[in-house]
Design a protein that fits this description.
single chain; Aspartate Aminotransferase, domain 1; 2 domains; three-stranded antiparallel β-sheet; 15 helices; binds pyridoxal-5'-phosphate
């Protein structure tokens, strides 16, 4: 990657004048396989990393840019604080605004992660309950498969303030958007029972576990029709793995991590807050000097800390610009490949995919052979550890409660209750998935069953 270590920007973390640094290679000459391998040479070569979804990945050229920013701060903190930091953060926000098609720069804040973004939105809901904007007993709707930490946040901020929480029970395996829409409509009806108002809907764009792409635009439209006050889309996985156009989706609040599928180092996310009366009352939970100056500015200084992850967005754009088709090209190829690998695994194991390909992004759920006997979340976690420790395969596993009426034998035989969530990112090779296929075959051939785990 030698040609990409640019001396001209060694002193400023990437670019000097607020413009995207010039690409070093013409777009007609896309990054080669060898260059991709070099960009991710810091990954442990002995491990099949097919779990980009959990923690993302960051190429060496972006890590180098991050280090330059950190050094620039440490070299002369005063100069950095007074002259460099805010213009550079603004530059990152401008790039994100373009990327997500926000109407106004004031609608885009950079925060640490989706968890922080959720806290910002839910803290606001909590104030609305305690200050009388929302009535005690008014409902907040969330998906049953909302991310665990976000669910806890909803309980901590909203239920405690008097909100009534309703979960939308999504079917899994799932075969169509209509199944999701149907359950969502039922949940809204329940929310509106007894004259209650539904004040907030928290909707995932891509659920984490099991991973399914949710028709957020349609659900947001339904919320508007049904008089739901606010819609918050938790799109932690979205940017870089599905198309994101916040104006088209139409939600009030929308967050996505940039460190999952967008090659930023941990940790940085954006929070889009549509211009409306509510958005002006949002505050960062960490209060500092900029309190009251609007969320983007509040978020741009939450005390002395390392802001470098937020500053490398231009370098990430450079990296992405080296791929044919940019981020759309990356997304498309990841999707095609993850579907191909998912089908290969399902065929090899005699199982099936958890959703049709059009309901998945760069991750897909694949059923595990029932004879492994995954009969609880604990079992799923233990098999995940086993695959990591014994077979050097990193992949998360989902335990799915059998559907009503489905009988599961003690040895789990035939019924699929465990699913792997496989990811595909630019650094993955087919061999990674073969390693998983063979590991599971070995477990099956050895007669492994979760009942063998010490209790
Ligand atoms: C749907 C969803 N929401 C929120 C999060 C939390 O992201 P973070 O840990 O970066 O805050 C995740 C993480 O995987 C997620 O999948």
């Amino acid at each position: 990657m030698g040609t990409h270590h640019r001396d001209d920007c060694a002193e400023n973390g990437g670019d000097d004048n607020g413009h995207l640094a010039k690409r070093l290679r013409p777009a007609s000459c896309p990054i080669s396989a060898a260059e991709i391998a070099e960009e991710f040479a810091h990954h442990d070569p002995s491990v099949a990393r097919i779990n980009n979804g959990s923690f993302g990945s960051c190429p060496a050229s972006v890590l180098a840019a991050q280090l330059r920013w950190q050094r620039l701060f440490l070299r002369q903190p005063d100069e950095f604080y007074f002259h460099r930091l805010q213009p550079a953060l603004l530059h990152s926000r401008i790039l994100v605004k373009e990327l997500i098609n926000a109407a106004d720069l004031d609608e885009v804040s950079l925060v640490d992660n989706a968890t922080t973004a959720a806290a910002i939105v839910l803290q606001h809901a909590s104030w609305a309950f305690s200050e009388g904007g929302f009535r005690k007993g008014d409902a907040v709707v969330m998906l049953h498969y909302a991310y665990g930490a976000v669910k806890k946040s909803i309980h901590a901020y909203v239920a405690r303030a008097g909100g009534h929480i309703i979960e939308v029970p999504l079917p899994f395996p799932v075969s169509s958007n209509e199944e999701i829409v149907l359950e969502f409509r039922k949940a809204l009806e329940l929310g509106k029972a007894n004259g209650r108002r539904v004040r907030l809907a928290v909707i995932d764009h891509v659920t984490s576990m099991p991973s399914v792409v949710i028709p957020v635009k349609e659900l947001t439209r339904i919320c508007r029709e049904e008089g739901v006050d606010q819609v918050f889309v938790d799109a932690a996985h979205a940017i870089g793995s599905v198309e994101v156009d916040v104006q088209d989706i139409g939600a009030d609040f929308y967050t996505s991590n940039l460190h999952k599928w967008f090659f930023c180092p941990p940790s940085v996310a954006f929070l889009y807050t549509k211009k409306c009366s509510a958005s002006s009352r949002l505050h960062h939970p960490v209060v500092s000097h900029e309190y009251g100056n609007g969320l983007p500015l509040e978020s741009a200084w939450i005390g002395t800390r390392d802001y470098s992850a937020q500053l490398v967005v231009p370098s990430v754009m450079d990296f992405i610009g080296r791929f044919e088709g940019g981020i759309e090209g990356i997304r498309k190829r990841n999707h095609e490949k993850v579907v191909e690998m998912g089908k290969m695994l399902a065929d090899a194991w005699g199982t099936f995919l958890g959703s049709p390909p059009e309901m998945c992004c760069s991750m897909i759920m694949v059923g595990l052979p029932g004879c492994l006997g995954i009969l609880s979340e604990k079992d799923a976690l233990k098999v995940r550890s086993l695959l990591r420790k014994e077979f050097k395969v990193e992949v998360p596993i989902h335990y799915q409660l059998p559907k009503d009426g489905e009988v599961v034998e003690k040895d789990g035989s035939s019924t699929v209750t465990g699913y792997v969530r496989i990811s595909h990112q630019v650094y993955n090779m087919e061999g990674d998935y073969h390693k998983l296929r063979d590991a599971v075959h070995k477990l099956v051939n050895d007669g492994f069953n979760c009942t063998m785990f010490p209790s």
